[in-house]
Design a protein that fits this description.
This is Class I SAM-dependent methyltransferase. By secondary structure, this protein is an alpha/beta fold. It folds into 2 domains: 113 residues, no CATH class; 274 residues, Vaccinia Virus protein VP39 (Rossmann fold). Helices cover 45% and strands 15% of the residues. Strand 6, helix 11 and strand 7 form a beta-alpha-beta unit.
């Protein structure tokens, strides 16, 4: 079969009703498609079987994770072309049900099935998260989901995140700046928005590897309780706290936010954690944090948000992200987040979008991973390393194309008779 690439290209274009902007390289060495474009490498016919059994994003993801598919050339360019072809076709894209009524589409499916060879469904790569039965976002399911994502190994995260070990959007002064400076500036921005002063108590919800807790205690003289559901994160954070000589001011706990009872706190930071809460639990989350704050206390909620859908009742979580990256994660529109915080009793005082900042951060994380690719694969396995490279590169493009954003929402437990305690001029953060 010396013409597999050309046959595959013609079938794919027939299925998509659009020209394929990438080159195709097939398992027989044949190539087809525009010269000079990045190449989608189909290493075996099993990749086609994955796509036939799971059409769409999940089939593509499984083939990528298993190594059945690859990209030759610039990864961002390839993903950008694929995004415009598959994920962002809007109202012009046919649903599968509509497409199956088209005789030409059905003929292309039959041709793809013939090209794919023997037809049993390949098992998913082992890195795929197994779903639990029952309700989402119980204490047990949240702990399991967090472990899937964060207990990959601290050595692996050191490669990706660099010395700062901050796993959230950095705050860049310039695209030419360093990741370390940008992450330091982000932590300082959060501290200033919270108005931290020596002697105050800070609760850091989803404390990760301890970077925010350490920065706040060392630079602003506060006492910090950091909570996480990840045992590996907690062990790493405690060692960092000890190495900094801050054990008298920083406590790291493995604890669910629903189980914190030692308030009140002067301030709460929640950085990149609320995405795990879920829409069903979000009001509960907001009320729990409000109850832990002193009157006049501030919450800084740093959270990824998606664009609103035409019909919010039909929104589903990204299949690849849900299966391989953040099981049970949910993204809400910014307006929904603000509304829920206000329903809980907060007064929302400031919203700042950092969308472009996250794109820059993700591109640097991808560079870090690629520079130590062989070591990363040894530490976590080839499949998981491929998951991370695809997820971070695709996410960078999603931020750049305004498909998703990230926002810092500053909210206050405003006391009676209504003085918030914030400065009269916005964003001086004193």
């Amino acid at each position: 079969m010396a013409d597999a690439a050309l046959r595959l290209k013609n079938l794919v274009e027939q299925l998509l009703a659009a020209p394929l902007p990438l080159r195709l390289r097939a398992w027989d060495g044949s190539e087809a498609g525009p010269p000079g474009a990045p190449a989608l490498v189909v290493r075996n016919r099993r990749a086609l079987r994955r796509l036939l059994w799971k059409p769409g994003e999940l089939g593509l993801a499984r083939a990528w994770v298993a190594g059945d598919l690859g990209i030759e050339g610039d990864l961002y360019t390839a993903l950008d072309l694929l995004a415009g072809l598959i994920w962002e076709r809007g109202d012009d894209a046919r649903t599968l049900a509509q497409a199956l009524r088209d005789p030409a589409f059905r003929a292309a499916v039959r041709g793809l099935a013939k090209l794919a060879g023997p037809f049993p469904p390949p098992p998913p790569p082992r890195e795929e998260a197994r779903k639990l039965r029952g309700h989402l976002h119980t204490r047990h399911s949240d702990r399991r989901a967090v472990s899937h994502h964060y207990d990959v190994g601290n050595d692996f995260y050191e490669i990706v995140l660099g010395p700062s070990m901050v796993y959230s959007c950095a705050y860049w002064d310039s695209p030419d700046g360093t990741l370390e400076d940008a992450q330091r500036d982000k932590l300082e921005l959060v501290c200033r928005k919270l108005g931290l002063k020596p002697g105050q108590r800070l609760l850091d919800v989803g404390c990760g590897w301890g970077s925010m807790a350490i920065h706040a205690a060392r630079e602003h003289g506060v006492s910090v309780v950091g909570i996480t559901l990840s045992q590996e994160q907690a062990a790493y954070a405690r060692k960092r706290v000890a190495d900094e000589g801050l054990t008298d001011r920083v406590e790291i706990r493995v604890q669910d936010y629903r189980d914190v009872t030692d308030g009140p706190y002067d301030a709460i930071s929640s950085i990149g954690m609320a995405e795990h809460v879920g829409s069903e639990r979000y009001l509960e989350y907001a009320r729990a944090l409000l109850a832990l704050l002193k009157p006049g206390g501030r919450l800084l909620n740093h959270q990824i948000g998606r664009r609103p859908q035409r019909d919010e009742t039909t929104y589903s979580v990204d299949a690849f992200i849900d299966a391989y990256v953040f099981p049970d994660g949910e993204l809400a529109p910014l307006g929904t987040t603000v509304t829920q915080l206000e329903r809980a009793g907060f007064e929302v005082r400031d919203v700042e979008s950092l969308r472009e900042h996250y794109a820059l951060t993700l591109r640097q994380w991808v560079t870090n991973l690629e520079e130590q690719w062989e070591r990363a694969q040894r530490l976590t396995g080839p499949g998981r390393a491929r998951v991370w490279r695809l997820y971070m590169a695709a996410s960078a493009l999603a931020f750049e194309r305004n498909r998703i954003g990230v926002n810092q929402v500053l909210a206050v437990r405003t006391p009676e008779p209504g003085a918030s305690g914030l400065p009269l001029r916005a964003r001086t953060w004193n």
